[in-house]
Write a structure and sequence with these properties.
Helix 5 links the parallel strand 4 and strand 5. The mean pLDDT is 97. It is elongated and about 65 Å long. The chain contains twelve helices and 16 strands. With 380 residues, it is α/β, with parallel strands linked by helices. Helix 4 packs parallel to helix 5 and helix 7 runs parallel beside helix 8. The structure holds pyridoxal-5'-phosphate. The site of pyridoxal-5'-phosphate has 14 residues, from helix 9.
């Protein structure tokens, strides 16, 4: 692993570095789930849209799912396999193009379904309704589509079975970084509330949030839940994980710019920013792993790592090191492939990190670098 780390440090700073060898490990596990069940697994592009890797991902997965036209176009152009889309509300101006490039369209309400039904069916698309089983299996309200009053998915009370003609499947997405026991509880709720409709349908999409590639995830339970559902109702099961595809497959390489001492703590200012390059650190919030560093009490030299923006809270976290940090030192944050490069922004005119890939043979390739024009082009 040490050699690999040396390799990542050859990337420009700051840079997201995705290691294909680590991505392939995840894809292999997902491929096994497909083999054991016959389910179809799709890449949820909202988590990971590094499209130069779509051909590799497409070798293992059945296709991709999109949150709207742009992601759907990306999968159509760069992966060319099954192309699913779900949006809480489609735009009139975009829907025709969606029907041309997507094979599966999921609607968030019966009103949306009624509005676009004829157009979608005439184009030969398979259509689905997103359901809300109202079964919360986690406490994080911002990531819980089952929280009271949620706008996502049709609840049992609002379900309109008389409008099911032309519908091929149902879709639910309720999990976030969860194990198969949460899926089991969710499936129980889905079956209790919507089970009566499943046998007449072709597919059931279990959404994302399955942390399948996390060490310790109960893959066998997932396999048995998929098999049980497919046998019981004769449906094709889909999974659309995002995070699990790219989990622990990428890094963010950056540089210490300055050290600022302020009484209680030494601040290290980096050329990367939580607010601009890893907003989930502030939103979730979470503490990204930093290679070679520890929790504040673990090692003798403690630093608060922060970005160079104006935001006082642009802080990645407190980390401890074996030796003092100095300007010019390179640092490598782990688990930076998913929900990172898709969420970057240029607040404060921050430069965007480059995008780098390391192939299994250990060759590093800088795919893309960004500059002033990328900042300017988004404004006018
Ligand atoms: C509808 C839908 N499908 C799939 C996903 C992917 O979830 P994850 O990246 O947690 O697997 C999401 C994430 O928000 C989603 O909203």
């Amino acid at each position: 692993m040490m050699e690999r780390t040396e390799l990542y440090l050859q990337a420009p700073s700051p840079s997201f570095v995705v290691d294909e060898a680590l991505l392939i490990q995840n894809l292999e596990l997902l491929r096994q789930v497909q083999q054991k069940t016959g389910c179809h697994i799709l890449l949820a592009q909202k988590a990971f849209s590094m499209y130069s890797l779509y051909p590799l991902i497409g070798e293992s997965l059945c296709g991709a799912t999109a949150s709207g036209l742009y992601e759907a176009k990306l999968a159509h152009e760069e992966m060319g396999k099954e192309n699913h889309v779900f949006s809480p509300a489609y735009l009139d101006a975009e829907f025709e193009e969606i029907t041309r490039i997507c094979d599966h369209i999921v609607f968030n309400s019966f009103a949306q379904w009624s509005k676009f039904r004829e157009q979608a069916l005439a184009a030969g698309c398979e259509c689905g309704i997103r359901i809300n089983p109202e079964c919360s299996t986690q406490d994080h309200a911002i990531y819980d589509p089952c929280s009271p009053g949620s706008r996502l998915g049709v609840t049992a009370a609002n379900f309109q079975p008389q409008l099911l003609e032309g519908i091929s499947g149902l879709h639910f997405h309720t999990l976030c970084e969860q194990d198969a026991d949460a899926l089991e509880a969710t499936l129980d709720a889905v079956e209790e509330k919507f089970g009566q409709y499943l046998s007449q349908l072709k597919w059931l999409n279990f959404g994302g949030g399955h942390h399948i590639t996390r060490p310790g995830y109960d893959v066998e339970k997932l396999v048995s839940l998929i098999n049980r559902t497919q046998e019981r109702y004769g449906v094709q099961v889909y999974l659309e994980p995002g995070e699990a595809v790219a989990l622990n497959a990428g890094f963010l390489v950056c540089t210490v710019l300055e050290i600022v001492q302020n009484g209680m703590i030494s601040n290290a200012i980096l050329d990367t920013s939580a607010a601009c390059h890893m907003p989930d650190v502030l939103e979730m919030p979470y503490r990204p792993p930093l290679l070679g560093a520890g929790l504040p009490e673990e090692k003798p030299y403690v630093y608060r790592l922060g970005g160079p923006t104006c935001l006082a809270g642009d802080i990645i976290g407190d980390y401890s090191f074996d030796a003092p940090l100095s300007p010019g030192d390179r640092l490598i944050f782990g688990d930076m492939a998913h929900y990172s490069m898709v969420k970057t922004n240029t607040f404060n005119g921050m430069a965007l990190p480059s995008l780098t890939i390391v192939n299994p043979a250990g060759q590093l390739h800088v795919q893309k670098t960004f500059g002033y024009q990328d900042f300017k082009n988004r404004l006018s």
